[in-house]
Each structure stands twice: as C-alpha cells, then as structure tokens.
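G.,

No rush on this.
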Amino acid sequence: MFSKILIANRGEIALRVIRSAKELGLRTVAVYSEPDKDALHTILADEKICIGPGKASESYLNIPNILSAAEITKADAIHPGYGFLAENPRFSEICESSGITFIGPPPSIIQLMGDKNRAIQEMQRVNLPVIPGSNKLVEDLSEAKKIAQKIGYPIILKATAGGGGKGMRIASSARQLEEQFSIAQHEAKAAFGNPSLYMEKFFQNAHHIEVQVIGDKNGNVLAFCERECSIQRRHQKVIEETPSPFMDEKSRTKLMKSVQAAARAINYQSLGTFEFLVDEKKNFYFMEANTRVQVEHPITEIIYGIDLIKEQIQVAAGEQLSFSNNMKWKGHSIECRINAEDYKTFIPSPGKIEFLILPGGEGIRTDSAAYTGWNIPPDYDSLIAKIIARAPTREEAIKKMLTAIEMTTVVGVKTNIPLHLSILSNSDFIKGQYNIQFLDKFIAELKPTKK
C-alpha cells in the first residue's frame, strides 16, 4: 500500500478521495491553483502545494508542476479524480516512468477507450452491440452525407476525443448536416485540440444507461447495477438514478453480464463506466467508456453499501477485489447535481456564496466542497454539491430527495435548485416515463418553484 497520495484535482472529488485515503490510513497532498488557495481540499489534506494560476492549462493540467509537487512531497501515488488529467494516457505513462502509481487504468486502456472510434471497434470485436455509424473517422462533409444516407437520419456527430457534450451535433436532414458538420469540428478543435469526428445513428426516445465496472490486476472484473442518466441538458447530466425505472430484470441482467464479459476481454483495470443508448425495445448499444471515476458514482455506492474510491486505491496497490459477484443492491438512489448557474440558460453563475445550508439526515448524502463565504471561481465547473437520496423504493427516494432539495439554501449566486424541484415534481418523471429528450422537450414548459 502507498504511504501518501497526491490528488491531482479540486472540489468535491478531491475531498471524496481525501476521505477514502484517510480511512485507509494514508497521508494526502492537495494541489491547488491560486484562486483555490482557500478551497476546502487544501484545508483538509495533510499537505498542500500551489501548482499555478487559475487557468487550468497552467495548473490542474500542468503535468510538470503536478509531478514536481509529487516529488517535493514524496507522494508515491496520484489520484486524478475526474476531468482534467483523469483520462490522459500520457500523464499515466509519465507517472509510471517516474515511479509514481497512477490510480486508474493502465495507459493502454486509457488510450484505447479514450479514442471513441477505436473503442467502438474493440467493443464490436468482443461482441458488445454498438450504435450503427461510421465505424471510422469521418474525413469530410461529402463522406458524412454518404454515411448519413446509409444509416438514415437523424444522426449525431461526435468528437472522437470528446467529453462533456463538446463537439456533439444532431442533424435531421442533409441541410442540417451541412450546417452542423463544420460547427462540430470547430467545437472539437477548440475543446480537445482534435477536430476529428465520427457519426452515429441518433435514436429518438432512447435512454442513456451506464454500467459501473471495476477490475483488479489479477483479471477479476465486476459490473454493477445500471445507472439511468437520461435527465440531461446539452449532453450534460442533471439527475441520475439507480436502478433505472425503464429497465426490467431480464434486460438488466443481460446488460450487466455483457459489460462484465467485454471488460474482462480487454483486461479492464481500476474504475470505469461503460455508457449505452437503450432503445424503446430495451436493445442496448455501446457508446463509449469513461476510464475514471464518474461524478455519479455515489448512487452506486449507496445502494451497495460500498466505497468505490477505497477499492480503487487498493486495486492500484495490487490488492484483489474485495467484492464478489454475489453482491446485491438494496433500495433506490437518486443524485441531483446542484450547480451555480441560471437554470433557464445553464450559464454559470460564479461568485461568493453568502449563505449556505446543505441537507442531511437519514438516507441523505451530500458531497460538496462549498461553504459560506467561499468564492466560486469562474475558471472551472460550477458544481456546488451533489445531493444523494436513498430509500427502499423509488417513490420514497423521490420524496426524500424533494425534501432535501427544498431544504437546500444557497444565497449569493444563481443555482439550478428551482429546476430540480420542478423535475422531481413532474408527473412523467415520478412515473419514470422519461428519456434523453425529456429535459429539452419540457424545459420551456417547466415552471420552476421559486427558491
């Protein structure tokens, strides 16, 4: 086991890693940018070290500075959290060559699954269904039109190096494809430095379903109950729940077994998530795999009664999985992401939190790095807190979450709390009758409760 872990991240995920590391008896190092000098993770870690100014490219994405911090503090492992360098194979390779353990998959797996086009081809090879699409990078508009004609409209363009909804564009006709192709290329280039795109068939009324996996260095791989992530806006998740109200036991078992077999076939190690589109007939199609811990991992933890981060650290140290295939989940869990943003436009609302009350109580978990008096910097994501509710049934979990959100108070910045209250009170959501079009379709009709 390691003696000291440096967390190459910030915010609530940095605190999440610090907590698990401390429970394992490990010392922790927080790195921070200048705007984050008063951030909570710098206070709660055993050591802290500044790695640069506010711009992420000069701090949280600055590999030399992070490695220097590890060397200065004698950290023998680095946990990347999510975002920033979490899915950067070069960073993983450099850690390895520097004698520092990267707490995540090996570089080869990150590289394979990080290239979405290669990942799709590999999943086809191991017999996991994939979405009909280009099967390769689309070089130009004329080629895109030919592929679209073959698979049928609507189609979706995706950045091969993408994430977070950047470089994604939907086209329902050849004319729309002409308009969206260059826009998607520019977005991909600006966000990832790579303009390459691939194409997929876009399914109407589909569900965004994902499966959490974890693997050790001895070939043991486990898949967990699916997470429903269809409440999203501009490809950004807003609410997640597990298990999915859409899936039945037969389709759930088939999906979990298929993912476990695919992950085992590629010798997957560490935490990861396989993401799918599931059509109205419950046919599932692989979209991508994220080689890191997901923002929404707590809802899996809370129904299984486990600590995925602790397990991820132990696996990185060479230990075998402590979980077994006989694990069973209990109840239902929902996560709401509370962001500092205008709930109508989704425009971030950085600034000082003048007053903050976060919920607690039986069945409620809150993951947050926010506090009264904290300035939310404009340089990073606008997440204030993740509120997680667990109850024996979905109906009870919704009621519990609604009460928790009503008790959440944030003064000083705009938040999406009114939107969450409206969604949780919506009759279609309560009945579990929603899909990936839900939020875009009803956002104008929703009349958020004032908060």
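When you get to it, here's the other one too:
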Amino acid sequence: MLNKILIANRGEIAVRIIRACRELGIQTVAVYSEADRESLHTQLADEAICIGPAKASESYLDIKRIISATLATKADAIHPGFGFLSENPKFAKICEESCITFIGPSSEMIENMGNKSKARETMKKAGIPIIPGSDGVLKDIKEAKKLAKRIGYPVIIKASSGGGGKGMRVANREEDLSSNFLMAQKEAKASFNDDSMYMEKYVVNPKHIEFQILGDKQGNIIHLGERDCSIQRRHQKVMEEAPSATIDDTLRKKMGEVAVKAAKAIHYYNAGTVEFLLAENGEFYFMEMNTRIQVEHPITEMITGIDLIKKQIEIAAGKPLNIRQKDVIIKGHSIECRINAENPSKGFRPSPGKITNLHLPGGNGVRIDSAIYYGYDVPPNYDSMLAKLIVYGKDREEAIAKMNSAIGEFIIEGIDTNIEFQYEILQNEDFIKGIYNTGFIENLAKGVE
C-alpha cells in the first residue's frame, strides 16, 4: 500500500480523500493557495504546503509547483480529485516519469478519452453506439455546414478538449451555425487552449445517464450501476440520483454491459464514468468518458456500500479488485444536492464572503461532504460549490422525503446560496414523478432568473 499521498486539490474533495486515507492508515499532504490558507483540508491533513497565490493557474494548475511539493514532502503518490489537473495527460505523464503514483488511469487513457473527437472514433470502432456526427475534428465552418445538412438540425458544436459545459453551442438552423461555431471555438481556446471542434446531432430532451466504472491493472472491469444527472443548468449538474427513476432492470443491464465494453476497449483501470444520452425512444448513445472520480460519486457509494476513493487508492497501488460484477448489489435510493454559493434570483451570480451562521443537517441516512465551517471565508477564486448534501432511503419516495427534511434544516448565512432553489426542484410534480430530462431546470428557472 502507498505510504503518503499528496492531494492536488482543495475543498470538499480534498477532505473526502484525507478521510479515506486515514481509514487506510496512509499519511496525507495538503497543498493550498494563499487564498486557502485557513481551509479545512489544510487543517485535517498530516502536512500542508503552500504552492502559490490565489490564482489557480499559479497554484492548483501549476504542475511544476505540485511535483516540487510532492518531492519535498517525500509523498509517493498524488490524488488529483476532480477538476484542476485530474484529466490533464501531461500531468499524469510527468508523474509516471517521476516515479510518482498517479491515482487514476494512465496518461495515455486520459489523453485518448479527453479528446472528445478521438474518444468518439475509438468507441465507434469498438461497436459502442455513438450519436451521429463528425469523424474526428472539423476543419472549418464550411465542413461543419456540410455535415449539419447531412445529419440534420439541431446540432451541437463541442470542443474536442471540452468539459464542464465549456465550448458547447447548439445550432437549431443553418443561420445560427457560423456564429455559434465561432463562439464555441473562442470559449474552447480560452478554457482549454485548444480550439479544435467536432459536431454531433443534438438529441432533444434526453436524459443524462452515467455508469460508474471500476477497473484494476489486472484487466478486471465492473460497473456499479447508473446515476441520473439530468438535473443540470447550462450543462452543469445541480442534483443527481441513483438509480435512475426511469430505467428498468433490462435497460440497466444492457447499458451497464455497454459501459464495461467501452472501458475494456481502452483497457481502462481505476475509477471512471461512461456517460450516455438516453433518448425518449429508449435508444442510448455514448457521449464521453470521464477518467477521474466524479463530484456525484457519493450516491453510488450509498446504494452499493463500496468506497470509491479507497478503491481508487488500492487499484493505484496495484491491488486487484476484490469484487466481481455479481457481487455488486444495488439497494435503496440516493439523491445528492450540490449546495452552491450563488444567487438564483440574480442569474445564479456567485456569492463569495464570510459564513456568519451555519447549521448542517443530520440524521439517519443523511451525509454531508463539505469543507465549510462557521466563520469560513468563501474565496471568489474557485468553483462556487460549498457542500454536497446526500441522502439515502429504502426507496425513491423515502429519499425525497429525507432530502426535503435535510434541505429544510440546512442554514448558511452571510452569503447567498441555492438551497431554496434546490427545494423548488424537490417540490416539482414532474421531479416527484421522475419525469424529467436535461431541459427540466431551464423551465423551472424561467420564473427565477
């Protein structure tokens, strides 16, 4: 087993990793920017080291500083969490060359799946159903128009190196294509320093379903069921649940087998997710593969009883999976709400500042993954997520009731949050019935923004 892990991240995911390491008897190193000097993860880790100023590009995204901190503290592994450098193949490659264990897949896997157009080609060759679209990167707008005419509108233009909803635009007609292509390209260049684009047929009113994958270095790959991530705003997830309310056992088995087949096509190891768009007619298509732990991993842990962070660490250390597909039992229902520092009534404007009052909900089946505390100053420099509120019930009805109760108890004062907006989602009749898709939150937000 690994002896000391440096966590190249911050906030609740850093705290989550530290706790898993404690249970495994592994020492931890927290890195932090000057803005995060008083953050919880710096206080919980065995060691903490400052890696630069508040600006992420000069701290959490600075590969040289993080590698230097790893060597200086004699850590033998790095856990990247999610976001920041978690899907940066160059970072993973440098770890490999420096004999530092990267807790994730190989740099080659990250690169192949991180380039969305390349991932499409790989999955197509493996016989995985993909959305009709471009074969590789588009040369220019002229080629984009020609393809859009062939596959039919609406189409979605995507950044090849995209993620988190950046570099994406929908064109409903030819007149919109040129401007949307250029806007997506400009955003992709600014976000990923890569303006290569590809295109897909836009699936109207789909559900966003992802399957959790675990694979070891011995070639064993399993899935841990699905998560429904359709409650999202501008391609950013807001609430997730597992299992999906609308997928039956037959479709779950079929999609799960395809997800495992997709992972096997690239000889994948460690934790990852295979993401699908599920159309209204029951057809599903490969969308992308995320080669890291997901924000919403706790709901899978709740319904399977499997600690995904521990599994990541064990796999990285070379241990084979001690569970097979037949051992995975999905029991009960779990929901996660992302609690953000933002004001829904003002266009979801970020709301940094000092937390002047705080009460966290509790009780049977209630879990909080967070790094906030009373008096904590939420910095303006990073993602606005404050906490993940997770509940577990014997079925979906009980899980919804528990989430309603927990949301009602959650008090954060001094800054604006989306707690009341989450409550509106929970009260919505279509959500209660499980009848929703990726367009759900836009309709709900029309009366808020």
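The chain is about 35% helix and 25% strand. Residues 4 and 405 are 39 Å apart (CA to CA).

Enjoy the weekend,
O.
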